[in-house]
Specification:
Low-confidence stretches of chain B: none
Largest sheet of chain A: 6 strands, mixed
Number of strands of chain B: 11
Low-confidence stretches of chain A: none
Strand content of chain A: over 45%
Radius of gyration of chain A: 13 Å
Largest interface: A-B, 23 and 25 residues
Largest sheet of chain B: 7 strands, mixed
Mean pLDDT of chain B: 97
Structural class of chain A: mainly beta
Strand content of chain B: over 45%
Oligomer: heterodimer
Helix content of chain B: under 10%
Number of strands of chain A: 10
Radius of gyration of chain B: 13 Å
Distance between the termini of chain B: 36 Å
Mean pLDDT of chain A: 97
Helix content of chain A: under 10%
Structural class of chain B: mainly beta
Shape of chain B: globular
Number of helices of chain B: 0
Distance between the termini of chain A: 36 Å
Chain lengths: 118, 107
């Protein structure tokens, strides 16, 4: 299984960050998929998960600004983060969470750096 | 949220040494504790899952133990490629949380 993030590397403050993760080598159906971000200051931070059924969970710290979606026909899932600020500058990873609770995050996409700046 | 606390935050060791990293959860996590290795510019890579299960392809010098709220990662006979940052993570509850990382450096 391989995951690849795609999307703009530069987003202006107050705008929306949009990323897509394309999954290859396995079906997206039947599994949980997550978004994680990493900053030097806050380390690794869970953003959200989505199951192929469409069920979702969001980190309470980002809940009001985050939406995740999934397109099983394209084997892709996506992240939208609204009203971004410089604090949202991070490397964003898409990760497979397999069967969910109790299972590890594996594998990870290579990550994509998103910078929030005007 | 479950808080994960790793210690030490950094560690210096030599090739051939054995090192241990500890991770403490703020509550019991049903042993749903995983360890990852991250090298500069790369994504984290799964080493060990559910306390002590070695991920496929990971060398046997890596081992994990613990229960309840206290867990350890041990690397025996350090190799040059082991110098990296290590993270623990719980997947007992969402938001899944990570430790702050332990940077293993060459002495």
């Amino acid at each position: 299984v391989q995951l690849q993030e795609s999307g703009p590397g530069l987003v202006k403050p107050s705008e929306t960050l949009s990323l897509t993760c394309t999954v290859s080598g396995d079906s997206i159906s039947g599994y949980y998929w997550t978004w994680i971000r990493q900053t030097p200051g806050k380390g690794l931070e869970y953003i959200a998960y989505i199951h192929s059924s469409g069920s979702t969970n969001y980190n309470p710290s980002l809940y009001s600004r985050v939406t995740v979606s999934i397109d099983t026909s394209k084997n892709q899932f996506s992240l939208r983060l609204n009203s971004v600020t410089a604090a949202d500058t991070a490397v964003y990873y898409c990760v497979k969470w397999g069967r969910g609770y109790g299972t590890p995050f594996d594998p990870w996409g290579q990550g994509t750096l998103v910078t929030v700046s005007s | 949220d479950v808080q994960m606390t790793q210690s030490p935050s950094s560690l210096s060791a030599s090739v051939g040494d054995s090192v241990t990293i500890t991770c403490r959860a703020s509550q019991t996590i049903n042993n749903y504790l995983n360890w990852y290795q991250q090298k500069p510019g790369k994504a984290p890579e799964l080493l060990i899952y559910v306390v002590s299960n070695l991920q496929s392809g990971i060398p046997s010098r890596f081992s994990g133990s613990g229960s309840g709220t206290d867990f350890t990662l041990t690397i025996s006979s350090l190799q040059p490629e082991d110098f990296a940052t290590y993270y623990c993570q719980q997947t007992f509850s969402v938001p899944c949380t990570f430790g702050q990382g332990t940077k293993l450096e060459i002495k």
